[in-house]
Structures are given as structure tokens and as C-alpha cells.
Give the backbone structure.
Amino acid sequence: MENNEFCIWVTSDALTEEEANDALIKAIPDYNRYPKRKQIQIIAHDQWYLKNGDFDLKRVLNAWIEKLDQALSAGFEGMRVTGNAAWLEAKDWRNLAEYEIEINMAIDQYRMIAVCSYCVDKLGASEIIDVVDSHQFALIRQEGKWRGIESSEHKLAEEELRDSEDRFPLPSCAAGKA
């Protein structure tokens, strides 16, 4: 928020909108100025992800982009979002996995940063692999310790970019030449 970014926190049943707001009041000095500036929005997952009780990948993606457009029009530099998938039921997993891939592609094209959180206790090994694969980085708490994991796809893309830059360096511009 200090970087003049619009922020959205999509809560889950485990943390209500009011509890999230109270936590921010305790954690951030002078927090109340941000809601007054309409710089932060806290919204329940069922109002964001599950309108009419259904998870609609395209509707949610379009809603993020619409929020970003509104934020940029209001003079903000970009948008930071966080959402929690604790609401997710097994029947929605495939849709969410597709959504994660789509949102990552969208984020690459827009001034947007996202942090996604998942309840590992509710996921099987296959779902955990999907989460790690569809995110640039993952933090996992294991036996009381945090462990960072970088997506192998992301690592490979970075290596390929570095190799390409080494093989095809951009020419430096000489002074006075067009």
C-alpha cells in the first residue's frame, strides 16, 4: 500500500472479512487511511470466487482485470491480491488448476502481484504438485519449518532466457548514433 497499489484480500471461511480487517489494524500503523482512500478491499470468497454458488474461471479472471483497470483509472500504480483456496471442494479442483494457469499468464501481462494460499491438509500429493507447478514460487511449512520451492518450469524459463541473452547480446548504443 505504501507503493500506491490497490490491494484485495479474498478471505475464506477460516478468516472473516471483519477478522482480516482487525488483523490489518493491529499489524499496520495508521492502517485506517488505506480504506478511506479506497486502496484496499476485503471480500469473502463466496462473493468473489463462488458467485451464484459456482466457480466460473472466466468470470473470476475478468473480474481481476476489471478491478485492475478500476485501480489504474483511480491513480494506483498496480494491484496486489491474495486469496485462499480453503473453500475449494474436490469437484472444483480441475477448474481451479486451470484458473491458476490462466491467472499466471494474465499476471505476466498486467501490473499485478498475487499470493495464493492453500490448506495443505485438504490436498493430496497430486494437487500439491499442481500448486507448485502453477506458481513461480511456493512456501511450504513442513515440521514447523518454512521451505521455499521454485517451479521447475520457471527455473527452466529463466535459464533459457539467460542462455539466449548470452548467445544474442543486445548491441550497445554508441553515443551520437541513431
Notes: The first strand starts at residue 6 and ends at 11. Residues 19 and 102 are 30 Å apart (CA to CA). Confidence is low (pLDDT under 50) at residues 174-178. The chain has seven helices and six strands.
